[in-house]
């Protein structure tokens, strides 16, 4: 199975510290704060945002105001 198939192109953030990302296709009610995200190698795959690895997102992951 390809883990990459479960990755998302956009993600939002939970309102927690440290900030944690979720895939926009799963929790679409939250405006995405990342243009791109990568995925961890965990099962199930989880999003990684710019605050974790700058190469994955062009916009830092921030909680909703």
Automatic annotation (TrEMBL):
<feature type="disulfide bond">
    <location>
        <begin position="8"/>
        <end position="23"/>
    </location>
</feature>
<feature type="disulfide bond">
    <location>
        <begin position="7"/>
        <end position="61"/>
    </location>
</feature>
<keyword id="KW-0722">Serine protease inhibitor</keyword>
<feature type="domain" description="Bowman-Birk serine protease inhibitors family">
    <location>
        <begin position="7"/>
        <end position="61"/>
    </location>
</feature>
<feature type="disulfide bond">
    <location>
        <begin position="11"/>
        <end position="57"/>
    </location>
</feature>
<feature type="disulfide bond">
    <location>
        <begin position="34"/>
        <end position="49"/>
    </location>
</feature>
<keyword id="KW-0646">Protease inhibitor</keyword>
<keyword id="KW-1015">Disulfide bond</keyword>
<dbReference type="InterPro" id="IPR000877">
    <property type="entry name" value="Prot_inh_BBI"/>
</dbReference>
<dbReference type="Pfam" id="PF00228">
    <property type="entry name" value="Bowman-Birk_leg"/>
</dbReference>
<comment type="similarity">
    <text>Belongs to the Bowman-Birk serine protease inhibitor family.</text>
</comment>
<dbReference type="InterPro" id="IPR035995">
    <property type="entry name" value="Bowman-Birk_prot_inh"/>
</dbReference>
<protein>
    <recommendedName>
        <fullName>Bowman-Birk serine protease inhibitors family domain-containing protein</fullName>
    </recommendedName>
</protein>
<feature type="disulfide bond">
    <location>
        <begin position="30"/>
        <end position="37"/>
    </location>
</feature>
<feature type="disulfide bond">
    <location>
        <begin position="39"/>
        <end position="47"/>
    </location>
</feature>
<dbReference type="GO" id="GO:0004867">
    <property type="term" value="F:serine-type endopeptidase inhibitor activity"/>
</dbReference>
<feature type="disulfide bond">
    <location>
        <begin position="13"/>
        <end position="21"/>
    </location>
</feature>
<dbReference type="GO" id="GO:0005576">
    <property type="term" value="C:extracellular region"/>
</dbReference>
């Amino acid at each position: 199975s390809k883990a990459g198939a479960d990755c998302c192109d956009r993600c939002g953030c939970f309102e927690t510290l440290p900030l944690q990302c979720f895939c926009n296709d799963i929790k679409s009610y939250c405006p995405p704060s990342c243009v791109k995200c990568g995925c961890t190698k965990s099962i199930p795959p989880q999003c990684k945002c710019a605050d974790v690895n700058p190469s994955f997102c062009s916009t830092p992951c921030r909680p909703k105001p």
